[in-house]
Amino acid sequence: MAVVAVVAAMLSGCGMLPGQQGSGGEERVTGTLEVADPTKATEAAEPTEAVKATEVPEATETVPAERERVIARREVKASGADLTVEITGLRRQGRLSTLTWTVTNNSDERWQMNSDMGDTPGGLGLTVAGVSLVDPVNGKRYAVARTAKQPKPSCLCSEYDVFTQPGEVLPLHASFAAPPPDVTKINVDLKVLGVFSDVPIS
Protein backbone atom coordinates (compact mmCIF):
# COMPACT_ATOMS: atom_id res chain seq x y z
CA MET A 1 0.00 0.00 0.00
CA ALA A 2 2.87 2.40 0.71
CA VAL A 3 4.19 2.08 -2.84
CA VAL A 4 0.80 2.81 -4.33
CA ALA A 5 0.42 5.83 -2.08
CA VAL A 6 3.59 7.30 -3.46
CA VAL A 7 2.45 6.59 -7.06
CA ALA A 8 -0.76 8.50 -6.46
CA ALA A 9 1.18 11.26 -4.72
CA MET A 10 3.52 11.52 -7.67
CA LEU A 11 0.62 12.11 -9.98
CA SER A 12 -0.34 15.23 -8.07
CA GLY A 13 3.18 16.68 -8.09
CA CYS A 14 5.62 17.57 -10.85
CA GLY A 15 9.18 18.54 -11.62
CA MET A 16 9.01 22.13 -12.93
CA LEU A 17 11.48 24.64 -14.15
CA PRO A 18 11.83 27.68 -11.89
CA GLY A 19 8.95 30.13 -12.08
CA GLN A 20 6.65 27.90 -14.18
CA GLN A 21 3.49 26.00 -13.35
CA GLY A 22 2.04 22.73 -14.65
CA SER A 23 -0.09 19.80 -13.60
CA GLY A 24 0.19 16.01 -13.38
CA GLY A 25 3.67 14.51 -13.90
CA GLU A 26 4.77 16.88 -16.60
CA GLU A 27 7.26 19.73 -16.77
CA ARG A 28 6.62 22.95 -18.68
CA VAL A 29 9.63 24.11 -20.63
CA THR A 30 10.73 26.90 -22.91
CA GLY A 31 13.51 26.61 -25.45
CA THR A 32 15.40 23.33 -25.01
CA LEU A 33 13.45 20.49 -23.40
CA GLU A 34 14.99 19.21 -20.19
CA VAL A 35 14.44 16.03 -18.17
CA ALA A 36 12.22 16.59 -15.14
CA ASP A 37 13.47 15.86 -11.63
CA PRO A 38 11.73 12.52 -10.84
CA THR A 39 12.20 12.87 -7.07
CA LYS A 40 9.99 15.95 -6.73
CA ALA A 41 6.87 13.97 -7.58
CA THR A 42 7.08 12.10 -4.27
CA GLU A 43 6.71 15.25 -2.17
CA ALA A 44 2.91 15.54 -2.51
CA ALA A 45 0.41 14.65 0.22
CA GLU A 46 -0.78 11.11 1.12
CA PRO A 47 -3.85 10.03 -0.94
CA THR A 48 -7.03 8.56 0.49
CA GLU A 49 -7.61 4.83 0.97
CA ALA A 50 -10.09 4.88 -1.93
CA VAL A 51 -7.35 6.07 -4.29
CA LYS A 52 -4.94 3.47 -2.98
CA ALA A 53 -7.41 0.66 -3.60
CA THR A 54 -8.12 1.51 -7.21
CA GLU A 55 -4.93 2.79 -8.83
CA VAL A 56 -2.67 -0.29 -8.80
CA PRO A 57 -4.84 -2.20 -11.34
CA GLU A 58 -4.84 0.88 -13.59
CA ALA A 59 -1.05 0.98 -13.62
CA THR A 60 -0.51 -2.78 -14.13
CA GLU A 61 -3.44 -4.00 -16.21
CA THR A 62 -2.71 -1.60 -19.06
CA VAL A 63 0.54 -3.36 -19.94
CA PRO A 64 -0.67 -6.57 -21.69
CA ALA A 65 -3.75 -5.02 -23.30
CA GLU A 66 -1.88 -3.00 -25.95
CA ARG A 67 0.77 -5.49 -27.15
CA GLU A 68 -0.93 -7.11 -30.16
CA ARG A 69 -1.18 -4.19 -32.57
CA VAL A 70 1.66 -2.06 -33.90
CA ILE A 71 1.16 1.71 -34.13
CA ALA A 72 4.75 2.70 -34.97
CA ARG A 73 7.72 0.72 -36.27
CA ARG A 74 11.36 1.44 -37.03
CA GLU A 75 14.57 -0.41 -37.92
CA VAL A 76 17.50 0.91 -35.89
CA LYS A 77 21.12 0.07 -35.21
CA ALA A 78 22.36 0.35 -31.63
CA SER A 79 25.63 -0.86 -30.10
CA GLY A 80 26.38 -2.71 -33.35
CA ALA A 81 23.08 -4.65 -33.36
CA ASP A 82 20.31 -4.50 -35.96
CA LEU A 83 17.03 -4.01 -34.12
CA THR A 84 13.34 -3.67 -34.88
CA VAL A 85 11.45 -1.36 -32.54
CA GLU A 86 7.65 -1.55 -32.48
CA ILE A 87 5.42 0.67 -30.36
CA THR A 88 2.36 -1.44 -29.61
CA GLY A 89 0.32 0.96 -27.50
CA LEU A 90 0.05 4.30 -25.76
CA ARG A 91 -3.08 4.17 -23.68
CA ARG A 92 -4.56 6.77 -21.36
CA GLN A 93 -6.42 5.34 -18.36
CA GLY A 94 -7.42 7.55 -15.46
CA ARG A 95 -4.47 9.67 -14.36
CA LEU A 96 -1.90 7.41 -16.02
CA SER A 97 -0.81 6.74 -19.57
CA THR A 98 1.06 3.52 -20.36
CA LEU A 99 3.45 3.00 -23.24
CA THR A 100 4.21 -0.52 -24.49
CA TRP A 101 6.80 -1.48 -27.08
CA THR A 102 9.03 -4.35 -28.19
CA VAL A 103 12.63 -4.57 -29.33
CA THR A 104 13.66 -7.49 -31.57
CA ASN A 105 17.32 -8.37 -31.98
CA ASN A 106 17.77 -9.24 -35.68
CA SER A 107 21.53 -9.69 -35.39
CA ASP A 108 23.57 -12.88 -35.15
CA GLU A 109 25.18 -11.52 -31.99
CA ARG A 110 23.62 -10.54 -28.71
CA TRP A 111 22.77 -6.89 -28.14
CA GLN A 112 24.47 -5.26 -25.17
CA MET A 113 22.01 -2.60 -24.04
CA ASN A 114 23.71 -1.64 -20.76
CA SER A 115 21.75 1.29 -19.25
CA ASP A 116 20.99 2.93 -22.60
CA MET A 117 17.29 3.41 -21.79
CA GLY A 118 17.68 3.87 -18.06
CA ASP A 119 18.13 6.71 -15.61
CA THR A 120 21.56 6.01 -14.17
CA PRO A 121 21.80 9.20 -12.04
CA GLY A 122 18.44 8.27 -10.50
CA GLY A 123 19.66 4.78 -9.60
CA LEU A 124 17.50 3.14 -12.28
CA GLY A 125 20.12 2.12 -14.83
CA LEU A 126 18.80 -1.28 -15.95
CA THR A 127 15.25 -0.04 -16.43
CA VAL A 128 13.49 2.05 -19.08
CA ALA A 129 13.13 4.96 -16.63
CA GLY A 130 15.02 7.23 -19.02
CA VAL A 131 12.37 7.21 -21.77
CA SER A 132 9.86 10.05 -21.92
CA LEU A 133 6.84 11.51 -23.69
CA VAL A 134 7.30 14.93 -25.29
CA ASP A 135 4.45 17.30 -26.10
CA PRO A 136 6.07 19.81 -28.49
CA VAL A 137 2.93 21.93 -28.85
CA ASN A 138 2.64 22.69 -25.13
CA GLY A 139 6.38 22.40 -24.43
CA LYS A 140 6.12 19.60 -21.86
CA ARG A 141 8.12 16.46 -21.20
CA TYR A 142 6.57 13.62 -19.18
CA ALA A 143 9.04 11.44 -17.24
CA VAL A 144 8.41 7.83 -16.22
CA ALA A 145 6.46 7.59 -12.97
CA ARG A 146 8.59 6.86 -9.90
CA THR A 147 7.24 4.84 -6.99
CA ALA A 148 10.17 5.38 -4.63
CA LYS A 149 13.36 7.43 -4.49
CA GLN A 150 16.90 6.96 -3.18
CA PRO A 151 18.31 4.88 -1.59
CA LYS A 152 15.93 2.25 -3.11
CA PRO A 153 14.46 3.88 -6.21
CA SER A 154 11.85 2.14 -8.34
CA CYS A 155 9.59 3.06 -11.22
CA LEU A 156 6.42 2.04 -13.02
CA CYS A 157 8.45 0.57 -15.85
CA SER A 158 10.27 -2.51 -17.13
CA GLU A 159 13.59 -3.77 -15.93
CA TYR A 160 15.83 -5.68 -18.35
CA ASP A 161 19.01 -7.72 -18.65
CA VAL A 162 22.17 -6.18 -20.05
CA PHE A 163 22.10 -8.58 -23.03
CA THR A 164 19.34 -9.40 -25.53
CA GLN A 165 20.01 -12.62 -27.43
CA PRO A 166 19.82 -13.04 -31.24
CA GLY A 167 16.19 -13.42 -32.33
CA GLU A 168 14.88 -12.42 -28.90
CA VAL A 169 11.84 -10.16 -28.67
CA LEU A 170 12.06 -7.92 -25.61
CA PRO A 171 8.67 -6.57 -24.38
CA LEU A 172 8.88 -3.29 -22.45
CA HIS A 173 6.51 -0.86 -20.78
CA ALA A 174 6.51 2.44 -18.90
CA SER A 175 3.78 4.51 -17.24
CA PHE A 176 3.56 8.29 -17.08
CA ALA A 177 1.18 10.93 -15.80
CA ALA A 178 -1.54 11.21 -18.44
CA PRO A 179 -1.39 14.22 -20.76
CA PRO A 180 -4.53 16.41 -20.95
CA PRO A 181 -7.48 14.95 -22.92
CA ASP A 182 -6.97 17.40 -25.78
CA VAL A 183 -3.50 15.95 -26.45
CA THR A 184 -4.20 13.10 -28.88
CA LYS A 185 -0.68 12.60 -30.28
CA ILE A 186 2.71 12.89 -28.63
CA ASN A 187 6.38 12.22 -29.37
CA VAL A 188 7.98 9.19 -27.72
CA ASP A 189 11.67 9.55 -26.84
CA LEU A 190 13.24 6.08 -26.48
CA LYS A 191 16.76 7.47 -26.05
CA VAL A 192 19.22 5.21 -27.92
CA LEU A 193 16.33 3.81 -30.01
CA GLY A 194 15.34 7.23 -31.29
CA VAL A 195 12.30 9.50 -31.17
CA PHE A 196 8.95 8.44 -32.62
CA SER A 197 6.86 11.45 -33.65
CA ASP A 198 3.09 11.86 -33.44
CA VAL A 199 2.30 8.58 -31.70
CA PRO A 200 -1.49 8.42 -31.14
CA ILE A 201 -2.84 8.21 -27.58
CA SER A 202 -5.84 5.91 -27.20
What does this structure look like?
By secondary structure, this protein is mainly β. It has one domain. The protein contains two helices and 13 strands. It has a five-stranded antiparallel β-sheet, with no helix packed on it. Strands 2-3-4-11 form a four-stranded antiparallel β-sheet, with helices on one face. It has a two-stranded antiparallel ribbon with strand order 5-10. Helix 1 (2-10) crosses helix 2. The longest helix has 17 residues, at 49-65.
Can you give me a brief rundown of this structure?
The protein contains 2 helices and 13 strands.
* Cα-atom radius of gyration: 16 Å
The coarse silhouette is globular
Tally of strands: 13
Number of domains: 1
Question: What does the average pLDDT come to?
Answer: 75
Largest sheet: number of strands, sense, barrel closure: 5 strands, antiparallel
- Pairing-aware structural class of the strands and helices? mainly beta
Unreliable residue stretches: 1-24, 28-67
Would you list the SSEs in sequence order as H and E? Answer: HEHEEEEEEEEEEEE
